[in-house]
């Protein structure tokens, strides 16, 4: 059986037998637990067996890449019975919602949302960098224009950090990186525009982190419809004039 886990998360695997089982790490044939007893100096490993239950659960806390491999639940019978689990450990990864390039209008608010997919051990901190420097929330220039704020929320599905930069300036353009304390960072490129209108921009309304505004498409469609209506009108007008002449 396949079991995937994120680095630093907890893993629980279980097998069901009516008699006591042993949990064995296959790569070094180390007996981790037998019945309700643990035989490893690594305190991250433990076994649970509720009373009047046939379930034997192996728990590994704060999983590390070195924990990857095959684990077997074995029953000491003749013939021996076993159930194998393959554990894969993936690095925790931050993710900034939206696309890799974000376009905002000068004077509007830059809104960036970073999520971290670690549930059991949420990051102790999440910092934001602009270019090579940490975003400064206390500088006088920041307070003068309305401020830069950071909102962090921890839920069952992970941690979310939202960076808000009000009254965006051209100097706010550049690379923004979300750096959690226990996960790989994520980056996004912000472009603050002075009057330009690209097809994709953030807006100050309720459309979210990233919005797509098909201005060119809508304009082209309107022009196309107008031209078609004009041509149809000209055809009707010409036909009407021809009819009048023939009647004369």
TrEMBL record:
<dbReference type="InterPro" id="IPR003598">
    <property type="entry name" value="Ig_sub2"/>
</dbReference>
<dbReference type="InterPro" id="IPR007110">
    <property type="entry name" value="Ig-like_dom"/>
</dbReference>
<dbReference type="InterPro" id="IPR013783">
    <property type="entry name" value="Ig-like_fold"/>
</dbReference>
<dbReference type="InterPro" id="IPR036179">
    <property type="entry name" value="Ig-like_dom_sf"/>
</dbReference>
<dbReference type="GO" id="GO:0050808">
    <property type="term" value="P:synapse organization"/>
</dbReference>
<dbReference type="InterPro" id="IPR013106">
    <property type="entry name" value="Ig_V-set"/>
</dbReference>
<dbReference type="GO" id="GO:0032589">
    <property type="term" value="C:neuron projection membrane"/>
</dbReference>
<protein>
    <recommendedName>
        <fullName>Ig-like domain-containing protein</fullName>
    </recommendedName>
</protein>
<feature type="domain" description="Ig-like">
    <location>
        <begin position="79"/>
        <end position="189"/>
    </location>
</feature>
<dbReference type="InterPro" id="IPR037448">
    <property type="entry name" value="Zig-8"/>
</dbReference>
<dbReference type="Pfam" id="PF13927">
    <property type="entry name" value="Ig_3"/>
</dbReference>
<dbReference type="Pfam" id="PF07686">
    <property type="entry name" value="V-set"/>
</dbReference>
<dbReference type="InterPro" id="IPR003599">
    <property type="entry name" value="Ig_sub"/>
</dbReference>
